[in-house]
Write a structure and sequence with these properties.
With 547 residues, the protein is α/β, with parallel strands linked by helices. 48% of the residues lie in helices and 18% in strands. The radius of gyration is 35 Å and the shape is flat.
């Protein structure tokens, strides 16, 4: 408004002069008597004359003096309008004003969200995958991204639920507040930009302004991770550490990795075939950056695996503590031969350049076609060529982070389930469990995972029965509410009761208030189960048969 002050004053001054001048110019009425236009008629005439509409001379024909003044006023008002309109257009094109208007509209839209949502900071490859995963679960999200090009990509996405978005720097707290951080419906904040310090700022701001909110931060620096942890960040995610653990699991317990990948939808249930990486012999690791170091930490203590590292710039990355070391990129045959690629059982192409990784794999397979290949994919756009490379394991950081965060946000009990299975020592039954889920429960369809807590909000019918000291077993939830003689196509994977965790509870397991149950089932089964949880007559119908 300050910038429009002068143009508005010019308009008002010109109109005032024109109106006053019209009242002072003498004219004649129809009888030839001397006549002066009053302020009302002068204002009316100048208003339409100044906008060049032109309704004619009112209420009588003008005299020469009046017409002379009209000519002067006409040019004055046209010039004033051109100046004012030009100033207004320049103001509307001002980037600061446009961004302010966008910010206000964004904040208003977010403030009007009356259901749980997640604030996603960063919309790169990881952000795209995460927002898509949340949309599949019909979970709302709000996005703040510093690059306008990525916001444009989000704009054209055909999501079923509108995603509010803002191009802004997430390291500035005001933008997080505009994004709904203080909104009581904000269920969590996810910082997944490619800037460690920006993610740290987001985590600190979120915990200081709302200590109770769930905060997930992506880091690839141990120093930043320690700083983030000191502020109480709930989940700190390093994609390289996650993949290194995943590779370690693939080597030692491949069935556990297969079960995890299928339950988290990282693999199609139809293609859930076990991988068999070599568990002993020589492995060649190309690239000793952040990714390479994480893989090296998992390999170095294995007694039956020999590791040779290839790195082009060891002065910058450092040298491994033990094991052979070769200087080079790994894309050249002679470098791989120095690392004894002909005797190797596996290779990890883990540089930060997709072209180099593909070149390493192609060259290595020419020298040793029997290699087990692990390759790092840095950019989602290269998916087609990485699929054509036919590697045994493809590590895509953005996809790994998005999958891990989706599990943390939607079914955090799945993390407990996988941890319990890993430490239970029941390695033999994992493949049988997967086959049971695949064939008997899902019938080769996509798995659906959900959590349920026994409380008045989620399970009012069961809570009412338990409050009346009536026993309810897992069998009631497994029965089809349409026909109690049929069973729903689902399986309880984990029951959490306080500090106690029951793996794969059986049908006769009694339920208690505040029990949390992790389910795996066919798509749509949870809707039928919801009928039992909400309708007292249905539960009574099922109980009467069970009892």
């Amino acid at each position: 408004m300050r910038r429009m002050r002068t143009p508005l004053l010019v308009l008002l001054t010109v109109y005032a002069i024109a109106i006053v001048g019209m009242t002072l110019m003498p004219g004649k009425d129809n009888e030839g008597n001397l006549w002066y236009m009053d302020f009302f008629h002068a204002s009316y005439f100048v208003s339409y004359m100044g906008s060049t509409i032109g309704f004619g001379e009112i209420p009588y024909e003008f005299s020469r003096l009046q017409r002379m003044w009209v000519i002067i006023s006409m040019y004055l008002t046209v010039i004033a309008w051109i100046y004012a309109i030009g100033a207004l257009l320049a103001l509307l094109q001002d980037e600061a004003l446009r961004h302010t208007i966008i910010e206000r509209r964004f904040a208003r839209i977010v403030n009007n969200i009356h259901e749980p949502f997640y604030l996603i900071c960063g919309y790169g490859d990881t952000g795209q995958a995460l927002v898509s995963a949340l949309e599949e679960k019909l979970m709302r999200s709000v996005v703040i991204e510093i690059q306008q090009e990525r916001i444009n990509v989000l704009t054209i996405e055909n999501y079923s639920v509108y995603v509010p978005k803002l191009c802004a720097d997430v390291s500035k707290p005001i933008h997080l507040v505009e994004g709904g951080l203080k909104n009581t419906n904000c269920a969590g904040v996810v910082a997944i930009t490619n800037d460690n310090l920006a993610n740290l700022h987001v985590a600190i701001t979120a915990k200081l302004l709302r200590s109770e909110i769930t905060v997930i931060g992506r880091v690839d620096s141990r120093e930043v991770a320690a700083n983030m942890d000191s502020f109480g960040t709930d989940y700190i995610i390093n994609p390289f550490d996650i993949f290194a653990r995943k590779l370690h699991t693939a080597l030692h317990t491949p069935d556990l990795l297969l079960l995890h990948e299928c339950l988290t939808n990282s693999l199609n249930i139809e293609s859930c075939e076990s991988i068999s990486p070599p568990q002993q012999g020589l492995w060649v690791l190309c690239g000793y950056g952040r990714f390479g170091k994480a893989v090296y930490e998992q390999f170095k203590n294995a007694t039956n695996i020999q590791l040779i590292v290839i790195e082009a710039m060891p002065n910058r990355t450092g040298y491994p503590a033990k094991g052979e070391f070769v200087t080079g990129r790994g894309t050249e045959a002679h470098t791989l031969q120095q690392a004894h690629i002909e005797q190797a059982v596996g290779i990890v192409a883990g540089t930060d350049d997709d072209v180099n990784n593909l070149s390493i794999v192609m060259t290595a397979k020419e020298l040793n076609p029997k290699l087990f290949v692990v390759i790092r994919q840095n950019k989602t756009d290269n998916q087609i060529i990485f699929t054509a490379a036919k590697a045994d394991i493809v590590m895509q950081p953005s996809k790994i982070i998005a999958s891990h965060i989706r599990v943390l946000l939607t079914t955090p009990s799945l993390v407990d389930f996988m941890r319990i299975i890993k430490h239970s020592g029941k390695q033999v039954g994992m493949r049988e469990l997967l086959q049971h889920i695949k064939k008997d429960i899902l019938h080769d369809t996509k798995p659906d995972m959900w959590e349920m807590t026994v409380n008045p909000e989620q399970t009012p019918t069961i809570d009412k029965k338990l409050s009346a000291n009536q026993e309810i077993t897992m069998d009631c939830l497994l029965r089809n509410p349409r026909n109690r003689n049929e069973m729903l196509e689902c399986l309880p994977l984990l029951l959490i009761r306080g500090e106690r965790k029951i793996l794969l509870p059986d049908r006769n397991q009694s339920l208690a208030i505040d029990d949390k149950i992790l389910w795996c089932g066919k798509h749509g089964v949870n809707k039928w189960m919801e009928w039992t949880l909400q309708d007292q007559f249905i539960l009574d119908y099922l109980i009467s048969d069970v009892m």
